[in-house]
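Data deposition worksheet. Section B asks for the primary sequence of the deposited chain exactly as it was used as input, without tags or linkers unless they were present during the calculation. Section C holds the resulting structure in token form. Section D is free text for depositor observations; keep each observation to a single sentence. Incomplete worksheets are returned to the depositor.
Section A, Depositor: J.P.
Section B:
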Amino acid sequence: MNIGVLGGGQLARMMAQAGSSLGLKFMFLCPDSHACAAPYGEHLCAPYDDKLAQEHLAKWADVVTYEFENIPLPLVESLQQQIPLHPASSVLSVARDRLPEKLLFHTLGIPTAKFTPVDSLEMLINALEDINPPAILKTRTQGYDGKGQALLLKGSDLSAIWKEIGEVTCIVESMVKFRREISIIAARNQKGDMVFYPVSENHHRDGILRLSISRQNDAMQVAAEAKIRKIMDNLGYVGVMTLELFQVGDQLFANELAPRVHNSGHWTIEATETSQFENHLRAICGLPLGRTSSTQTTAMVNLVGRLPEESGIRNIPGASLHFYGKTKRPGRKLGHVTLTSSDYSPEEFEIGLAALLKLAGEAELASRKFFNSTPLTQCN
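Section C:
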């Protein structure tokens, strides 16, 4: 079966790696001449709006998917008229824009931080009369890894902030005091069957995910599954979806959804029978969904902006290294390392994780205790 992928980054790369055991072939439409997925299939190096490239992809592929939200919606809508495409363009129109995404959550009875749309400096000024600072200004589209966001404090120069963010449509969102941030990843096939992965506990710095820890038998697992099920059923979703959540006391507030495989689920490659990447392919190809349970604690550490010495990582028992083959750039995700607990006692796992975090340049996270301790109170 031939799989067309819009995008050619590490998510497309790991999708293709997972697809090799299923006998799938891949074609990537991506304007980046150095797309790191390119070695795993045919690379159509062209702009997303290139009509000839679109036609070639549609003729070759049996089904098309995408690896990120910030692709042109008209491209997805056009391809959907020619070839099966999952998730559907109607899903992308919601997930790529923070306002319809938040409205969907509210329609389904899923709580969120307080928010209001703003389209001008005047609306921003008025919004802060309703949502007291501190608050966050977020662009409605094109925001990821902390981009397209600005912190609003009492006395902030709103005019300067509005110009800095690009004077584009945004939302203002209240700050939420939360115990921790988690994500739930699920796969849904064309029949409506669903499978869920154990929740991931996530830790960010500078808006970029640095650490995810799988949490088997988590107290929030059932509630998280119920929320993502509501969303996927409502959208008639096909594929893997990720829902990012804040735990506020015993409640879960939705932050955002990702209509794709997700960074916080990279640990599923080593720790589950069927990774998120394979289950996404199974879902869009009409194949039976695979088992998702995990019997061991697993952590995933992102390698951002720099790569540590490979030998140092390989000296840590249970560490599995994934380099993406991307050129170094500040703030860029260059790889990740998964640490599994099969070779460790709980105490040894904590020590091994701290060593790995230090190698990745995450000294502050390396100093924390993630097991048998109460999560710190934070704000979004």
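Section D:
The chain has a mean pLDDT of 94.
DSSP finds 13 helices and 19 strands in the chain.
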